[in-house]
């Protein structure tokens, strides 16, 4: 697996995770993540920012400027 293959796999998984319902997942796993709120409190703008920042962080650690933006989560650019 190349570094780019890794990033593409993570990007695909990130999109699947996001599409399957992050608020519900966070609540379902609250015993593991210390979430004590409810789905209405999960700010998807913040969630998207963290997901994109994490993937760009991993890319940077691999020496790649992946350049993923939150707006790209809705586009086909990185899918």
What do you see in this structure?
The chain has four helices and no strands. It is mostly helical and 79 residues long. Helix 1 (3-19) runs antiparallel to helix 4 (44-61). The chain has helices at 3-19, 22-28, 30-33, 44-61. The mean pLDDT is 88. Helix content is 58%, strand content 0%. The protein has one domain (3-74).
Layout of secondary structure:
Blueprint: H1 3-19, H2 22-28, H3 30-33, H4 44-61
Helix pairs in contact: 1-4
Features:
79 residues, mainly alpha, 4 helices
Report the sheet with the most strands, covering strand number, pairing sense and barrel closure.
Answer: none
Overall domain count:
1
Distance between the termini: 18 Å
Q: Write down the Rg.
A: 14 Å
Low-confidence stretches: none
Number of helices: 4
Tell me the quaternary state: single chain
Report the helical percentage.
Answer: 55-70%
Q: Which secondary-structure class do the elements indicate? A: mainly alpha
Q: Mean pLDDT across all residues, rounded?
A: 88
What fraction strand?
A: under 5%
DSSP strand count:
0
Based on CA inertia axes, which overall geometry fits? elongated
């Amino acid at each position: 697996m190349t570094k780019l293959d890794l990033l593409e796999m993570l990007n695909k998984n990130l999109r699947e995770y996001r599409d399957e319902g992050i608020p519900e997942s966070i609540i379902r796993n609250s015993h593991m993540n210390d979430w004590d709120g409810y789905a209405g409190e999960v700010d998807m703008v913040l969630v998207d920012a963290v997901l994109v920042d994490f993937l760009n962080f991993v890319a940077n650690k691999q020496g790649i400027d992946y350049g993923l933006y939150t707006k790209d989560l809705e586009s086909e650019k990185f899918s």
